[in-house]
Amino acid sequence: MPLDLPQFKSDTLPARRPRTNKRTLVALAVVGVFFLFFLNARVSNPDTTSSVQEPPSSSDPNKHIHDETTLTPPILEEGEEEQSPSDDPDLFPIDDPTSEAANILPDQELFPTTPNDEDKTQSSILDEEEVKSGENVISPHSNQHSSLPHPLSEESQDDIIINDSNHYTHIVVIASQARDMTRRQLIREKYFGLRDNLLPCMRYNTDTLYKFWIYGDMIPAKTDERRRYEAEKMEWDDLEEMGKGIKFEQTSILEWAETTLADRGITYDYLIVQDVNTFIQLSNIKRELDNGVISESTHSPVAINSDTPTNLVWGNFAGAESDKHAFIVGSAAVKLAIEKQADITMFDVNGPHILTNMYHYYESIGADVESAVDATMEPEAAAEEQERVIPLFIREDGAEDTHRFIRWENNVESVHAEDSVVTHVYQDAEFTDLARWTYLKPSPVCYPRKSAFKDGQPPLDPLDDDQEEVTTEDDEFPTSDNSTSAAMAGLTEGNRPSIALMTSSFIYPDNCMEPSATLSAINKRKFAIRHGHSFVARSAEFAQQRGRKTVWGKIDAIEKVLPKYDWIFWMDMDAVIFNQEHSLYELLDDLRERYPGGTEAFDKNVDFIVSRPPRDPMLNAGVFFMRNSPWSMEFLREVQNNVPWYNKGSAYEQGAMAEIIENPKHKDNVYQLYPDVHTFNTFPKFYQPGDFIVHYAPDKCPSPFVLKGLEFAERIENGEVIDKLV
Q1: Beta strands 293-294 and 302-303: pairing type?
Q2: Measured between alpha carbons, how far apart are the two ends of the chain, in Å?
Q3: pLDDT tens digits, residue range 607-624?
Q4: pLDDT in tens, 511-538
Q5: What 3-state class would DSSP assign to 597?
Q6: CA-CA distance, 505 to 541, in Å (whole number)?
Q7: Euclidean distance between CA atoms 474 and 201, whole angstroms
Q8: By the 8 A CB rule, do 264 and 166 touch?
Q9: With a threshold of 0.90, does the pTM exceed it?
């Protein structure tokens, strides 16, 4: 009953204060404790200060207020660094050491997006304060575009998926003339994250394959430019040379895809084609194709039909020269264009671009085709058939179209987030600025083997006598006493050391090796691919020599590459692999078994394996093994410091190496095969069937002999037995 009813009122007892609920008190106490913890955290962490954005100043013409759809760069707290995609644990998972992904982390940052400070220019760099504050920085000429978002603001990427097939979702084709060497290197770096070939792509094992489609006149032979071009071919293996008279036209590209690629067993979903003077936001184009929505950030997105996603043609169709500067076409549409090429050409015999003609052809007959299909099929079946026989055309240059394929206006501020293609970019500096301005995120085309170098590598100098060596059970880098053992213990399938087959790609100015150098590199690369080795050809280290013979570039190149592998196997340009059957793993295992001191002594001591032919006064440095170890790095330094041999012929760097290994302190680290002419360094006069490598080192130009040796090697590979070479 209510307490205020008359029978419960008392005139004698004093009024009592209501009792507070105990549960309420406990709840308030808990809330108070958490509030104190929160205040304490805020006070102890000054970096969590509020980041309220100031509205842009009306006096700054580069700052504009946009609608709620505007995309902005990420806001960084004070002291916070941008995360590199190569640091993303989801992008390169390496927890499982037995998985292939555990061995494919690039040595360099895969996604370089920030240039050096000295390269920054006013026209190409977003103001750092604007980026940090999240304010929009776009061209003042338009209020219809969104500002460019920083790609690293997205969520972490998917786990690595190794593509072991010959099918690629995207094949990127860059039409280029032979002389466009500097632009090709920019494209490798900016599009694909390939800054050098130290950890090369031995196979394209992502969803993307790329090729430079080389057309036009070849660079004249016996010129410096031709020598550099041949070096590029040897080092990158990504140039597809067209025959004489083949021009860059859409038809030529489509026919190449349907013949040359098909003959190699390569299939694809989409061709993404551009000329070398065009810049494309490749990662954005790939994302839109994968998501099935084109122009998704605009007011007129186009959905790709999920039943026939590759029956698509995307580009400009005005009939101008720029129609071929960039276009995307699905594999089904390519086959349709080739199949109906005669009809399409007859429709407009003067039109130079097959895809443009195809667009107008279907625009003309499309209604009739649809009517004919509708008359013979049920509605649902008719709709499916129409999507199969009529491509989806996404036009960028019509009056009502999105115009995302633009021509370069000589400033990055005119380029916006939704501009997928920028044509007529002739200056390399402008191409670099565009990559920076658009936050272009490279799309990996391979997952190379991760570098053998590990943090905590022991110093090159020996420890002091009174200094104790500190090791832990988690120490990933072994000491100099057991590093060989760790790398060599049982060369089984799952426990193999990383090996790089190295060679020179530098052609000397006398042009002696120009006819055979690239063919010799192909011989070595084929062997490396077959057996899972890396192939590293280098020319820059030879070209940089000053004050000593060019051949010293060999030592520079080995010093550059060796830290990234467990072993390197050096072959001179004039050495040819005759026996492709046995891997370098097997060769190392055989040498380990043959070592006079036994396998344990080999594992503990041997860092340098080299042969010395009978009656020769010194080792032959044309072919040898070298292990990544502190001893090897010290040895190479000693060789580099052996100044008297800089120009002392005819041995040069070989003489320096031979002299240094005579020092008794190096005796245990060198395994010199003497006299030996059959293990891995055979001169032609000593050749026997089954020998691994024949080294042509005549007193005169070796090129004719190398060409003959390559012919012998091919005949042997085809099953013929060659008894002798001379």
Answers
A1: antiparallel
A2: 123
A3: 999 999 998 999 999 999
A4: 999 999 999 999 999 999 999 999 999 9
A5: coil
A6: 10
A7: 31
A8: yes
A9: no
